[in-house]
Design a protein that fits this description.
Elements lengths: L2 H4 L7 H17 L10 H15 L6 E2 L2 E2 L6 H13 L3 H26 L2 H12 L2 H6 L5 H21 L3 H22 L2 H17 L10 H22 L3 H15 L12 H8 L7 H10 L7 H18 L11 H17 L6 H20 L13 H28 L5 H20 L2 H8 L1 H7 L8 E5 L6 H5 L4 E3 L6 H6 L8 H10 L3 E5 L1 H9 L5 E5 L4 E4 L1 H8 L1
Parallel strand pairs: 3-4, 3-5
Antiparallel strand pairs: 1-2, 5-7, 6-7
Helix pairs in contact: 3-4, 4-5, 5-6, 5-8, 5-16, 6-16, 6-19, 8-9, 8-10, 9-10, 9-11, 10-15, 14-15, 14-16, 15-16, 17-18, 18-19
C-alpha cells in the first residue's frame, strides 16, 4: 500500500478538530489569570490603561501620572475597555494580547486553507499554535503580540487578495490589508506600515513581479489608512505640541539608528530566539523555504511572499541598534504557513519523510527525558531568598517535560503513516509544554510583581496622600496599589514626561528630603539600600512593609495626625 493511500485513515474528522480547538481555547484563555503581572511591559501597559480609564483622557496616554508618548494607544484603549467591562485585574490586562494571538492562529488556518488546501490550513494553524514563542507571547501583556497580529492580518489579506479570482474580492481584501496596517500603526507606530512596505518591495524585485502594484488599490487604501490613523495623531498633536518630534524622531528614527535605548545586541541576536521560538518545526523549515524558492517564478507566489516576509523582518531588526526578543514575533505565522504547506505536500506525495519524522518525534522524547536530569541546575544562580521559588518552579518544568515526552511518544507511535494524528499529537505536546512552563513562572514572577507587598499595605493607605517613588520606577506596584507616584531624582523612562511637566516631580534628592519633612501625610517607595541610607540621615520614616526588592514607608506623623 502506498503512503499516499493510507494517509486518510489517520485524518482528523471535523468533530475531533472542533473539540481540539475548544480545548485549546480553554487552556489558552483559562491560564491568563494565574500569573501576576511582572516588570516591565506587563505592569507598564496595564497601569497606562488603568490611568486612562480613571482620568477619562483617551487621547493623551500617561504613565505614573506623566505624559507617555512612546507608543500609540490602540492596545491601551482595548485594555482600558476591558477594565471598564470586566474590572481591573491581571487577566483583563492580558486579554487583548491573548485575543489577538488566538485570532491570528485562526486567521492563519483560514488563509492557508484558502490559498493552499484545508489540510495545509490546519497544519499551519497547529504549527503556529505550538510554537513556544507565540504561545508565551500570547500570554504576556506587551505590545508585540498585538502589533504582530495586525501585521500578519495585513499579510494574510494581501495573500487572499492576490489569490482571489474576482476583482471585487481582490478589492475587499486589499482594503482589509490597508485597514490592518492602520491598526498595526496604532499599535506600535510607523513600523505597522513600514514592514509590509519593505516586504512588498523586496518581493517585487526578487520575483520581478511589477503587475501586482496595479492591484494594491493605493489611492482608496491610503484614504482608508489615514481615516483610521490620523484622528488620534491629529488630536494628540493638537493637545501636546511636543508629541510629533518625540514620537517620530526619538521613538522611531533614533531607536533604529542609535544605541540610546541600551537594547543593543550582535547581528545574530535573533537566531537563537528563532530556533527556540519555532523549535517543534525547525526541521521542516529548510524544506519549506526550498519549496518557496522553487515557486518564486509563478505569476504570484504566496510562498515566496511569505519567505520575503520572514527574511525582511529578520534582516531589518538584526541590523537595528535596538533589539528585543519580541521584535521577531511576526515571522512565526509566516513560517507556520510555509511549514503547513510543506507538510501538506509531503503527506500526499510519498513516504520519504516518514523516517525523518519518526526520528524527530523520538528526538524530542529523548530530549524531554534528558531534561529531567538537568533540573538540578535550575536555581543555582538564584538569590538566596529565591531558592525556594526556583525549587517550586522545577515542579512545573517536570510537568511540562512530562507532557512533551508523552505526546512526542504518542506522535512517534502514530508516525508509521505520518498522518494528521501524529503531527497533531506532536503539536499538542509542545503547546502543553509551553503553556505549563509559562504558567508556572508565577513561582518566580510573584516576587518581582510586588503583589504580596501591596496586599500587606494597601488597606492601610489613605485614599488621598502623596506617594513618592525615590530613585526608582517600579512597573507593577502602582498598578496593584491603584495610584500614581511622584518621581524623585531618577525619572527613568519617564524623562520626557517630567520635562514636559517639571512641577509634577522632584528633580533632586535634597528636594525630596525637604518635601518629606514638610509633607506629614506622605508615603514613599524605595529599594532597601535607599531606606538604609535615609535612616542614616535620620529622616523621619516608619516602615510599612517590604519584600526582597522594595520598601514602603510613611511619615511617622501620619499616624498621630490620623489619631487626632
Amino acid at each position: 500500500m502506498q503512503f499516499g493511500q493510507v494517509r486518510q485513515s489517520s485524518a482528523l474528522n471535523p468533530v475531533s478538530i472542533l473539540i481540539l480547538v475548544l480545548v485549546y481555547a480553554l487552556l489558552w484563555f483559562g491560564t491568563l489569570n494565574y500569573r501576576h503581572l511582572i516588570p516591565s511591559d506587563e505592569g507598564r501597559y496595564a497601569e497606562i490603561a488603568r490611568e486612562m480609564l480613571v482620568t477619562g483622557d483617551w487621547v493623551t496616554p500617561r504613565y505614573n501620572g506623566y505624559k507617555y508618548f512612546e507608543k500609540p494607544p490602540l492596545q491601551i484603549w482595548a485594555t482600558a475597555t476591558a477594565f471598564n467591562l470586566f474590572g481591573i485585574g491581571d487577566w483583563q490586562a492580558r486579554l487583548w494580547t491573548a485575543l489577538t494571538g488566538f485570532l491570528t492562529i485562526v486567521f492563519i488556518g483560514f488563509t492557508g486553507a484558502r490559498i493552499y488546501s484545508a489540510r495545509a490550513g490546519w497544519l499551519a494553524a497547529i504549527a503556529l499554535a505550538s510554537s513556544p514563542m507565540w504561545v508565551i507571547g500570547g500570554h504576556i501583556n506587551s505590545l508585540d503580540m498585538g502589533l504582530s497580529a495586525f501585521l500578519v492580518a495585513a499579510l494574510c489579506s494581501l495573500l487572499l487578495a492576490q489569490n482571489s479570482q474576482k476583482t471585487s474580492d481582490t478589492r475587499k481584501w486589499m482594503w482589509a490589508c490597508w485597514a490592518f496596517m492602520a491598526l498595526a500603526t496604532l499599535s506600535k507606530g510607523v513600523i505597522g506600515v513600514a514592514i509590509p512596505g519593505m516586504v512588498f518591495i523586496v518581493y517585487s524585485i526578487s520575483a520581478w513581479d511589477w503587475k501586482i502594484w496595479k492591484q494594491l488599490h493605493m489611492i482608496s487604501g491610503t484614504i482608508l489608512f489615514l481615516a483610521i490613523t490620523s484622528p488620534w495623531f491629529v488630536l494628540v498633536a493638537q493637545r501636546n505640541p511636543e508629541f510629533l518630534e518625540f514620537f517620530f524622531i526619538h521613538e522611531h528614527l533614533q531607536r533604529f539608528t542609535q544605541t540610546a535605548h541600551s537594547r543593543t545586541g550582535p547581528i545574530y541576536y535573533f537566531v537563537p530566539l528563532l530556533l527556540l521560538g519555532f523549535l517543534p518545526w525547525v526541521a521542516q523549515t529548510p524544506g519549506a523555504l526550498r519549496d518557496a524558492w522553487g515557486e518564486r517564478n509563478r505569476e504570484f507566489s504566496s510562498g515566496w511572499l511569505l519567505t520575503c516576509w520572514f527574511a525582511v523582518i529578520m534582516g531589518f531588526f538584526s541590523i537595528s541598534q535596538s533589539k528585543l526578543p519580541g521584535y521577531i514575533i511576526p515571522v512565526f505565522p509566516a513560517l507556520a504557513m510555509l511549514v503547513g504547506h510543506h507538510l501538506d505536500r509531503n503527506l500526499g506525495s510519498s513516504n520519504s519523510l516518514e523516517l525523518p519524522w519518526k526520528l524527530q518525534t523520538l528526538f524530542f522524547v529523548i530530549l524531554g527525558g534528558v531534561g529531567f536530569f538537568f533540573l538540578g541546575e535550575v536555581g543555582k544562580q538564584a538569590r538566596p531568598d529565591e531558592i525556594e521559588s526556583y525549587a517550586q518552579y522545577t515542579h512545573w518544568i517536570v510537568a511540562a517535560l512530562v507532557a512533551l515526552v508523552l505526546f512526542s511518544l504518542l506522535a512517534f507511535m502514530q508516525s508509521k503513516r505520518y498522518g494528521f494524528r501524529s503531527i497533531t499529537s506532536f503539536a499538542g505536546g509542545f503547546f502543553l509544554c509551553a503553556i505549563i512552563a509559562g504558567t508556572g513562572h508565577e513561582t518566580l514572577g510573584r516576587a518581582v510583581s510586588g503583589i504580596d507587598l501591596v496586599e500587606k499595605v494597601k488597606a492601610g493607605i489613605p485614599e488621598k496622600v502623596n506617594f513618592y517613588s525615590v530613585r526608582i520606577l517600579d512597573h507593577t506596584v502602582p498598578f496593584y496599589l491603584g495610584r500614581t507616584m511622584i518621581m524623585v531624582e531618577s525619572p527613568d523612562e519617564l524623562e520626557f514626561g517630567v520635562k514636559q511637566e517639571p512641577q509634577l516631580w522632584l528633580p533632586t534628592f535634597d528636594a525630596f528630603i525637604e518635601r518629606w519633612k514638610e509633607d506629614q501625610t506622605a508615603y514613599a517607595l524605595m529599594v532597601p539600600e535607599q531606606y538604609i541610607q535615609l535612616q542614616k540621615l535620620n529622616l523621619p520614616m516608619q516602615e510599612v512593609g517590604r519584600d526582597s526588592r522594595r520598601v514602603i514607608v510613611k511619615h511617622p506623623e501620619l499616624q498621630s495626625s490620623s489619631a487626632k
